[in-house]
Specification:
This protein is of the alpha/beta class and 259 residues long. The protein has helices at 59-76, 97-111, 129-135, 150-156, 166-174, 201-214, 238-250, and strands at 10-16, 20-26, 82-86, 116-121, 140-144, 181-185, 187-191, 194-195, 218-222, 233-235, 255-258.
Length: 259
Amino acid sequence: MSTIIYTSPIFGPVHSRRLGVSLGINLMPGDGKICTFDCIYCECGFNADHRPHTPRPTREEVATALERQLQKMRHEGPHPDVLTFAGNGEPTCHPQFADIIADTVALRDRFFPEAKISVLSNGTQLHRQEIREALMLVDNNIQKLDTVDNDYIRRVDRPINPRYDSSDVVEQMAMMKGHVIVQTMFMSGTSHGISVDNTGDAYVLPWIDALLRIQPSQVMIYTIDRETPDHDLRKASPSVLDSIAEQVRAAGLTCSVSY
């Protein structure tokens, strides 16, 4: 099994299908994975297979490493399109997340004011007001919503909290008043002999209803791009993704597709 464990607190820059030249900010340990989801398609592998032995980076360590890298990129290139909070787990779980966002905004404004700040999140911390307030400071608040079917989420995204309820997350996204981008993984195939295909109307139509409730600034749909820890998963075809995107656009929402 090939998995990706990102260095911490800074990695890249890498080329993102959706974001361009992206400098990664990983708030999890650099030797393992800590996440409130345990997705069967995660490029970082399953949580249990990559338990870290080092702590999360501190606010000061993140700011120091980010400043050093931005200085280097200003002199040597490339210039980043985006500074992206991602990596080995859920970034909003870091106990100093809000302060780190404030530091990052200040450093971005100092070195590359034209660059965007993105956060890739699974939405599990949106019930916390301080997290929502911090996310209002970033340019791209990208929140995962693979479906609104809780049985599917428990089978595929596998939230650590047994009380996870997609309806709560939808309402919390709606509280962002449009300052949110919804990101959804579509795929087919099976897991332990059970279908994980979420591309049919039974999943897509309720998901679109949730999008209308959320009113995101954009919807990003994508499919598997790298090796997954569960090897029976399959990419959704371009034609299927295009069809879903057209349904989203017909509902009056902006939608981008990554194949």
